[in-house]
Amino acid sequence: xxxxxxxxxxxxxxxxVTGTAxxxxxxxxPGVLLGATLRSPVARGRLRGIRRDPAFDWAxxxxxxxxxxxxxxxxxxxxxxxxxxxxxxxxxxxxVALVAAEDPVRLARALRxxxxxxxxxxxxxxxxxxxxRKAQIHGPDNVFATxxxxxxxxxxxxxxxPVRLTGRYRTPHQEQLYIEPQGMLAFWDANGAHLVGSLQxxxxxxxxxxxxxxxxxxxxxxxxxxxxxxxxGKEEYPTLLALHALLLAKKSGCPVKMIYGRQExxxxxxxxxxxxxxxxxxxxxxxxxxxxxxxxxMDGGAYVTLTPVVLSRAALHAAGAYRWEHVAIxxxxxxxxxxxxxxxxxxxxxxxxxxxERHMDRIARELSFDPLELREKNLLRVGDTTPxxxxxxxxxxxxxxxxxxxxxxxxxxKRAALGPAAPARxxxxxxxxxxxxxxAPRKVRGIGASVFLHGAGFTGSxxxxxxxxxxxxxxxxxxxxxxxxxxxxxxxxxxxxxxxVFRQIAAEALWVSMDRVEFAVPSSSVVPDSGxxxxxxxxxxxGSIVERAARELFGRIEHERxxxxxxxxxxxxxxLAGKGPIVAEKMYETPEDLAWDDETYRxxxxxxxxxxxxxxxxxxxxxxxxxxxxxxxAAVDAGKAIHPLxxxxxxxxxxxxxxxxxLNEKLVVQDGRILNARMATYIVPTSLDAPRFTTVLVEDxxxxxxxxxxxxxxxxxxxxxxxxxxxxxxxATGIVRDDLxxxxxxxxxxxxxxx
Amino acid sequence: MRIAFVLNGQKxxxxxxxxxxxxxxxxxxxxxxxxKEGCGEGECGSCTVLVDGVPVNACLVVAGQCDGRxxxxxxxxxxxxxxxDLQEAFVKEGGTQCGICTPGFxxxxxALLTANPQPGEGEIRESIAGNxxxxxxxxxxxxxxxxxxxxxxxxxxG
Lengths: 755, 158
Hints:
heterodimer; A: alpha+beta; Aldehyde Oxidoreductase, domain 3; Aldehyde Oxidoreductase, domain 4; 4 domains; seven-stranded mixed sheet; 21 helices; B: alpha+beta; Ubiquitin-like (UB roll); DNA polymerase, domain 1; 2 domains; five-stranded mixed sheet
């Protein structure tokens, strides 16, 4: 059919461009109440009670507190987070009570008439204070998780290396800033609990509701509304919001809708984990890397949420896309009294890739190497092993990515034209050169690069445990002339284009046109659990299940056709005329040769990696220290691009989030409270900040990927943008920044710091 | 207050407090939920509609100001079976991903192309600078608008 590899019109496009697509706030039900959340104003304290203003008219207002929660836990990795705080408050904005009323004005007044009575306790606000056990806020040592990865003898190999370099690299919070704030509509009926919401993972919510309300599987129904962006921010958080809305609905006896305002969304929901990475490396004078020792420290916030998994992915990506014979990685995440951090595109990897890529630039500077030449010399190839001992069997397209990015960006020509690398051009000299009246330019240009990898799918034995499932039904269309097919999966379309790509994969395998393949609305009562929509796993893992289910159906129809003749459609209709529904349901089959040991952190960390090389060209204004990105080139090994246009859309969008993290976004946190929780003050890039992107798709197929070899690339582009920008700024100005962000004030402050 | 205006080409009159946000008037009593709220303070541009042809943030305009004016929302551009050329370009060229910002971008682009049928890339980027998209990196949105311009040009010259 030739559907795979073709950029067909987006399946959900017409509804989205005409405004008929229904997001959670576009749903309503008769008698619906609006819900809101009363939150803690302090980072830590003892909750003594909730005071209700006796002068307020409470008629028709529902108030819910911890006493109303049947089982007061949010079921995630651990059950340390309460649905509503009952005793100790552990972070600012922590929910302490809920309120519902019939209109927004009454709701706002009722919320103001409630006051949490909290006796403050000294909070732990930094990683250093957590490690020093300034107060005990989680377990015996405030540590959420620790991972160690070891290969060879890093300490000894570094000691024996001719060139030993150390660096420390920090990255701050980042807000997902999906344009649609979190929202949920909840109601109860004779069948149990019902939810419609903006979410990534219907079965995460399903699990949380079952636990908190002690309900059976069949009595919880979770349906995804069209979701206005997520980026990880709607992975685990919607479970909490769903529980809140259901509590209010239960107590009031009415449907309840909760839609967060922007400020509340930025303050209360999860963010990217702040991280500090210390790297010590050893190599020779010719630029051959030998050994690396890496320590990762992550701030998990007040509750565990997904922190151990984020930390694990950070550790597994910390050595970058390079061959090291000796590796020692230690990764630790701690608790602080700040809002819990959680999933955000990249999931720990952008933090450690930032560090290793800045460190590679440090080595290149020390050895006077071209930064890409140093990287190319040490790139992982087929046949190499990663720090966990994973043998790379296939689909390592990173060398081609570097070549394509160099070619597209004119790397060699521009590096030559722009002159020597940073150390020869300290910014003080530039500033002197460009003093008022001087003829030298007041804007300087530079070009920088990054090389990176991202493991697709759940880590280690995760996919084996998940057992993701997909079903495809064969149905009779109206008026029954042709069979239709319907994909049922819990993989949600959150903008990345799941519906379109899955329909392409299924239609191709069934040899039918795409309009004969439907995509069922992900509802936990209708679709099997395909696992969560996370970890760059949707196309590669779940897409491969879609493909197998479609092939099985095709085989059944083809068998019938060969037996009794007629066309494909005749055979399909004959099958439909028989007894029972025609369904193919398939479960993910982990490739047999993948092995992973959770205890030793040895083995195949991921089924396969996607690879990328970014090149950024920037201009820095030496008066204002503003950075303009003049051009951005990304080459990505996607295995096989099933929908090239959408694939490029993922790369460009993810890259701009990374550029925003570097150049625009800065979350200001003081005493555990966020000072700039508005779009007017937390700045993300606009069309004028965004560069023109040139995206090259490299296809080094993965033998187990759908559509002829697709790999997951949803998160990969988040990894490379920031270090490429930092490298370009360094090349332009001589300012070496090891910490994000790179806002004008940060560059100004750093301008005197020698490399 | 009685507010009479032309909405998507049709005369409409509604009773509403004059300080009702235009956004709430559209999404509530008028049932037009295509206009989206992203921030409520005029930063994200998701609620962009045209008042007398000028893009405004419907979260910052009050209903009383619309009396006697012409208001165009995304529902007035085209339908799923009859997309406008601009809408079709967004579907084909990757101009929409999650879609929540899309109606706002379409309204800003529609205003641009009405005023300037042959915009360059800089003018396109300038015209949508009040709209925030977190999914696309803007490139496919710019391409979608350029595609619509090209189609119009070739139609007119052909």
